[in-house]
From TrEMBL, chains A, B:
Entry keywords, A to Z: Aminoacyl-tRNA synthetase, ATP-binding, Cytoplasm, Ligase, Nucleotide-binding, Protein biosynthesis
Database matches in Gene3D superfamilies: Anticodon-binding domain, Bira Bifunctional Protein, Domain 2
The protein's enzyme class: ligase
Protein name in UniProt: Proline--tRNA ligase
Gene name of the record: proS
Length: 450, 450
């Protein structure tokens, strides 16, 4: 993409309404624009990141054997009355009357509807296990929406649901989700720590929240510092293998890590003092096992091996996809702007032409731009007639991990400059080698296209 | 995907509520399930097709130089009051009050909001031309929703908006969209004929609808039969070249082709009698040029080259993505079921194992399944313990274009059977050759992943 033709409305001033850094930087980098309180438009660069996160979630869900589907945003109130949640949900649910005066709502979550689909079509234990998920817009009518996409009213969320014959199978689904969520966050360049949490309006016995440590987090968290040393990394995990998945779950949840809702001072004090930590965390996902809480009232049963009907064991699992855009920025920025992890950057590299209009510099930039594209890498080429300082400031603000700077002086020596946004370090090298190096960096960070 | 683990709730009976073939087949093939009147859940196979169509639209929009972004589904009524459409839109607009009693709505289209984004961020003619689009869920509260996804209330739509300095530039945007829409439909295996239409509540001077001929179409159309012989095909078109785009527009719109709203009997009778046709058509897209209709009331002006503010010339463009799933089925099916065009099929090939449990047949199927996957092709492998007749009926119903049938008898001679869903023709050939042939067929039909 050429910056001269891109819609990237960068702001020079800090917007007064933005209280936290991700909100400020998303507005300043031209990623979002508020449409109403807590409701945002995603401008081209913001949408590009959102879509990459969506695709990473889809890819990791497919790898775990879960099936993508999609439920509508507007649902009838009837099912919610059946489960008892229509009244229980309170003012956060956006309630709507259609033209025939029927009670509808904008779905904040979809346990009822997926259970309705299940009970209509699944009759036998032989059809289990079954896990389906969607990535769809949700609405929660927050009293005081704030912090940009971190606590908006309309938000983009992955929600998944598993149906199993036994508690044991359902707990495997729980563990499998824990593993696949860890992989999802790591691909996004995030460390998200599973912490024992409270189940809230979803209900159920077992639940873990995934928290990204950041000063601006809404939750107070308490943990053993050793938990931050664990990584999933490149381990090859068979999602059908119950023991493997359980082992990962146990490894990641053995050490103390809890939100304030479930914090236990006595247990916390058992941690060696030098490893006791309290900090702030951003919630980016949650998994639940809630047994037959929905299957019983909604009549989601299957015929068991003995011919008798049994209610299925269920769980649900959520990743806040739009909120993750903010969380990644909270976890990865400096005073100049965003620093995108390679796995989610909107463009793989920026090209800065120091002397637009200079025939040689222009030709070198074009050639770099084309060479990167030929390798399936996306470059953002700043081809505007601006001073170098302004171009650097824009690149730093929008946070592409790698920048190639092209100027007449370097070209005389056959080199361009390759700069890491994160470290600030630069090296001079011939253009072909810069392209090769960038291609190598991104070899492990490919997401399927838009 | 193995059918034994897939969620594909195929119905044996014709659902009573489905009046047209696409609705019937989408329900029978387990693609959708009604959630409320005119509102559907997309089950895994339905979602897979929907997502492919979405990706084709994204790819073709990017090729034309248009930028993807995303606007929220819930919008404030304020902007719609400013444009005067809040009252004009009538009962089809889903009106909502949030918890603070503010008037909101579920967006049926987004001219107001995109214009608001434009006026906030674009100030100079140098920032033009600019075209942005989104693919987002919309809602129209139809009195009598029917025909499944063809006339639902919640629907998935691409809507794009161009901003230009002059009428001439805006007409180039119009022509460019016409070309890129033609390419989009052709990739989906559809012939969609641009027909002069009425502009309805969007307004404006110039508008064409794209219609797919089908008996179940909601519109009566009149055309010169010669128009159905024109194809875009593999022509290489430079979307920045005004003359090239205009030439394509003229070629495709020179012959008489109109909906009943703009039909002119006198002009129609000028067509040689043997080429005069009246038929039914399904509307799958529409493009508009409406000049300054929104930019003037909403104050979307730029500073022109002479320093004076000028309202921008605009157009908007829509493709009904969820409706296209139905339209493709209306245009491509037989009495046994759906016949997917190669460009949009949920799976590239089906594998039918005639003797599940037979070691040799099972091994041959696994090997075919893996060989196709290794080439990036998706297979649906019917590995259930069902009789051959049932397996064939399911494959015919869900309509994958190519089926590989594997049985002990063929394997003895080293062959499997490759069958075309469209022609019904089969040939016997060694498994490797079947894979090669399928790979060759799909070489020109790749869509970026999920």
């Amino acid at each position: 993409m050429r910056l001269s033709r891109y819609f990237l409305p960068v702001l020079k001033e800090n917007p007064a309404e933005a209280q936290i850094v991700s909100h400020r930087l998303m507005l300043r980098a031209g990623m979002i624009k508020q449409a109403s309180a807590g409701i945002y438009s995603w401008l081209p660069m913001g949408f590009k990141v959102l879509r990459k996160l969506e695709n990473i979630v889809h890819e990791e869900q497919a790898r775990a054997g879960h099936m993508a589907m999609l439920m509508p945003t507007i649902q009838s109130a009837d099912l919610w009355r059946e489960s008892g949640r229509y009244d229980a949900y309170g003012a956060e649910m956006l309630r709507i009357k259609d033209r025939h005066d029927r009670d509808m709502l904008f779905t904040p979550t979809a346990e009822e509807l997926i259970t309705d689909i299940f009970r209509a079509h699944v009759g036998s234990y032989k059809d289990l296990p079954l896990t389906m998920y969607q990535i769809q817009w949700k609405f929660r009518d927050e009293v005081r929406p704030r912090f940009g996409v971190m606590r908006g009213r309309e938000f983009f969320m992955k929600d998944g649901y598993n149906f199993d014959l036994t508690k044991e199978d359902a707990l495997h689904a729980y563990n499998r989700h824990l593993v696949s969520y860890l992989r999802t966050y790591e691909r996004m360049g995030l460390q998200a720590i599973p912490m024992r949490a409270d189940s809230g309006p979803i209900g159920g016995d077992d639940t873990h929240e995934f928290l990204v440590l950041a000063d601006t987090g809404e939750s107070e968290v308490f943990y053993d510092s050793a938990v931050t040393d664990i990584r999933l990394g490149e381990r090859d995990i068979d999602y059908n293998d119950k023991d493997q998945c359980r082992a990962v779950m146990e490894e990641f949840t053995a050490l103390y890590a809890r939100t304030d809702e479930t914090h236990n001072e006595l247990k916390f004090n058992e941690i060696p003092e030098e490893r006791r930590r309290s900090a702030r965390g951003i919630e980016v996902g949650q998994i639940f096992y809630f047994g037959t809480k929905y299957s019983e009232p909604l009549g989601a049963t299957v015929q068991g091996p003995d011919g008798k009907p049994v209610p299925v064991h269920m769980g649900s699992h959520g990743i806040g996809v739009s909120r993750l855009v903010g969380a990644i920025i909270e976890a990865s920025h400096d005073e100049k702007g965003i620093i995108w992890p390679e796995g989610v950057t909107p463009y793989h590299a920026g090209i800065v032409n120091l002397k637009q209009g200079d025939a040689e510099a222009d030709a070198a930039c074009e050639s770099l731009y084309n060479a990167l594209q030929a390798l399936g890498l996306e470059a953002l080429y700043d081809d505007r007639n601006e001073r170098a300082g302004g171009k650097f400031a824009t690149m730093d603000l929008i946070g592409l991990p790698w920048r190639i700077t092209v100027g007449p002086r370097g070209l005389k020596n056959g080199v361009v400059e390759l700069t890491s946004r994160r470290s600030g370090e630069s090296e001079e090298l011939p253009p072909e080698q810069a392209v090769e190096k960038i291609a190598k960096i991104y070899a492990g960070h490919r997401v399927s296209g838009l």
